[in-house]
Amino acid sequence: MLVDSHCHLNYKGLAEQQDEVLERARARGVTAMLNIATRESEWNEVLAAAETNPDVWASVGIHPHDADQHPDVDTAKLVERAAHPRVIGIGETGLDYYYDKSDRRRQQDSFRRHIHASQQTGLPIIVHTREAEADTLALLGEEMGKATYPGVIHCFTASDDFARKALDLGLYISISGIVTFRNAADLQATAKWLPQDRLLIETDSPFLAPVPHRGKTGEPAFVADTLAFLAELRGEDREALAEATSVNFYRLFNKAQP
Question: Is 92 within any annotated ligand binding site?
Fold first, then answer.
């Protein structure tokens, strides 16, 4: 039993062959995929894949890159769309100061609106953070102090200290194919000690194809390769880790049914 906790089935490279992509994932033991939204214009597409495939779930959200273009996506709109029975998460959202494609204050405002939607619905928030550790933690902590909410740091590449503080807030950590890269020593060191009961695995496909698929279009089937690498890295049984991370997924995204 494998779960890809974060993929973009509607993105170029996967959308054109979505049925084949899903079949290849199923053939490698992937039993569930969370299809992630990043802008309002794709919400219907993301939902359509979840409505027609019982092993695909959906999120609704605005990526920090697109915060400038979505000033009207407020908490109420997120909450309304999250009522759909196939929507199990809020995001992806967060802060990206590496590319700075949107104004930082607008990123923060959008992030906060998503957290409020998570607080109101109980659905987990899916957090993107890059070169923004201090502000991400500050905002997460401030809002957690007002009302608790579940969540996951997706495609984790932050510092060891950030991981510990995110775990202290009750969040989960999701590891992508980046962990298999030769230059990912720091991430590998963190991935070794992350508590098994707070760990998820993802592809972030069509991006970040893991070894041995580097240079190819990523797809959900490749979550099996990341799992195999992670199990060896942590000295754990592959099947046991697959089961644990799947159980974690359904514990966190508890609106989904296995």
Answer: yes
